[in-house]
Request: fold
Amino acid sequence: MISRVQKTVLVLVVVLFMAFSNTGSASAGALLADLENALMCKCDDKCGKVLENCTCSTSDKTRKKFSKMLESGLTVEQIVKQQVEEHGETILSAPTKKGFNLTAWIIPFGAILVGGLGLRRLLNVWTGKKMPDNEVDGAADVDTDKPDDAAGSTKYSHRLQDELNQLET
Reply:
């Protein structure tokens, strides 16, 4: 007869075995998902989708091939490198961050910055605010307390005051 301690040890071993076997398959699934996110589908339809989102028959075959490669011990990086050597950099879902491909990462942020500055200038023109020439350089002119059209505004102030005085009489 099996003692209580032996039953407890046996149950503990079975639970640990199940826990580790599930972790291995979960990590394999995560590695496959990482691989599918890193690569584009190379189907005949040229769908242009990331492998993870593609539902064609070619993507199913590719997933099976990648699963076998992962099970054989290859890492995600090795498989990606092999695919780049075979199909070129167009297989990557995101451009590399070196060489000419670096422009694909920099240009959008530069365009947003230039567009924002242009929008600011356009809004200032539309609202009638005049930007001093040296604001572009970053140094505002501290000496000018009055706007450029101060003489014109005092001229109209005097004219308004004269017309108001004439109305009173």
